[in-house]
Structures are given as C-alpha cells and as structure tokens.
Amino acid sequence: MEREPNLIISSASRHIVEEKIPFKVDIYKLEGGDGWSLEVVAADGTSIVWDDLFKDDLAAFEEAVATIRSEGAVAFANGGSNVIPFTN
Length: 88
Hints:
The protein is α+β, with helices and mostly antiparallel strands. It has one helix at residues 57-71; strands at residues 7-9, 14-18, 21-30, 37-42, 47-49.
C-alpha cells in the first residue's frame, strides 16, 4: 500500500495583525508537491483559501498581506461587507 504524502507547513506561516484585527496565515503543501497553498483564517474562524498555488512560500505570504491590506482587514473578518447573508 502506498503511503499518504506528508503535509509540509511553511515557516512563513504565522499570526499577523492588520488594522488591529488578528489573522492566522497558513502556508502549506503536500510532500513532493509543486506549489504552496495559502489560507487566511480570521479570529472568528472565517477561512479564505486561494485557488491558485504559489511558486514559493514567501510569495504566498506576501500575497496574503497585500490582499488583506488592499481589501481591508474588515472584509476578511466577522462577515465583513463583502458577505451577502443567505435568506429564504
């Protein structure tokens, strides 16, 4: 039986604070994989995962910070103004 690949967590993964709002930036890839995945998690547990893979982990981290700054931290946290609530 073939073993499952290990998940490699980048040392670029870290907690950051933008506009007084904390975020966890997770950067990871499968062992032997070609690119790095990026996930940003807000304090309320809201998670945003990028569809595209990044060539290296530093590029993924820089994209996370740049996106949070350009979109505004509140857009990522606590169901910011970019979230449209579902109604019946």
